[in-house]
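In response to reviewer comment 3 from the previous cycle, which asked for concrete evidence that the modeling workflow produces usable outputs, we include below a single protein chain processed end to end. The sequence was submitted unchanged, and the resulting structure tokens are shown without manual editing.
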Amino acid sequence: MLGYIWQCFYSSCLRFWLKWFLRLVTGRCELQRICARCKAGALRTAQIGEDHTVFVFDQVLRAALSLKEIGLDEHLHVFKICACCGYYKGLTAVLNLRQCLLQINAYNELFEAVEEVRKQVFDSENKEHENMQHLWDLLMPSVKLESRITKQWGNIGFQGDDPKTDFRGMGMLGLTNLLFFSENLGINLTEMAYMLIFAPVFLLIIIRYLAYEFDKFWLEEEPESIMEFNRYREKFHDKVKGQLQMPEVTLIMTVDQEK
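The workflow returned the following structure tokens.
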């Protein structure tokens, strides 16, 4: 209860006067203070993205977030932002803010694109969605698929006779993921990566990293049977989320050539 009262008091009154005092003492607005205390990277971009100044100057900042890199430069929105909040005091300050805005915009575009694919319900009657035969040919090139609905799907990991039931949670994103891995290099890892982009960090998780690291994690843990998959999946998920809590983390996939 006391925490709730403090939060209401801080957000409605104290926060405004505290930031006014800091600006008076330092001669810098909040955006400028963030860029000064945080080096370039995820931490700076995340703090600017969470900055309530965005809502104060929403007409300018939100317009900048809707532009690509070329449009951002052509329309000089960043310079207008700096003029509005008294931020512009040199080219370095402008470039720092510009880079953060581009990163935030790129993250929003990534989220929207992934969500759009995920919301597309798999439809076996839609020819554009019916890539299951192609998936089968990639994974089982020497075995002919008897029909679209068949128990053969269990041979490559599907739970029922009709694989479309396995795509209910992730929609076309699940099928797209399976095709990508079959052609170039699972649905569970796609779902994991999808959930991670909701986290309050501005990092792009590469599914190939998850696939390789989960395989290595699985072998290291030595589970007794495949029936323990869900428990080890959650354990691996917690491990990755813990790494993402560290602002300076760098996830590097080192492939063991001997294997």
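Residues 132 and 148 are 8 Å apart (CA to CA). We consider this sufficient to address the reviewer's concern, and the full set will be provided in the supplementary archive.
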